[in-house]
């Protein structure tokens, strides 16, 4: 890898990666993992830093799938336990879904 052609490096945190991955799953139907969420979070940060204008495009490679994460960040209880998601303080019209699929996880 030629590091001299890289303009800027971004370090992303797990929370951002998990939240953006959940957004990709919910909004776009893309069954991607936390690394994909981190890639999107980094791309959004870069778009803001480099002042992308109307009509400019940014390609984001989503490097992983949800296969190994079914009992982790897609589970609201796990996200709350780890401090990545806050428990709602009041009921709204929004539904929260927890996924538990032990038969899909190979140990």
TrEMBL record:
Output the superkingdom of the source species: Eukaryota
| SUPFAM superfamilies named in the record | Tryptophan synthase beta subunit-like PLP-dependent enzymes
The residue ranges crossing the membrane are none
Which key words tag this protein in UniProt? Pyridoxal phosphate
- Name the coenzymes or cofactors required: pyridoxal 5'-phosphate
Q: Which InterPro entries match?
A: Cys_Synth/Cystath_Beta-Synth, TrpB-like_PALP_sf
Q: Which GO terms describe its biological process?
A: cysteine metabolic process; serine family amino acid metabolic process; sulfur compound biosynthetic process
The answer to whether UniProt assigns keyword Kinase to this entry is no
The signal peptide annotation in the UniProt record is: none
Name the protein family: Belongs to the cysteine synthase/cystathionine beta-synthase family.
Q: What is this protein called?
A: Tryptophan synthase beta chain-like PALP domain-containing protein
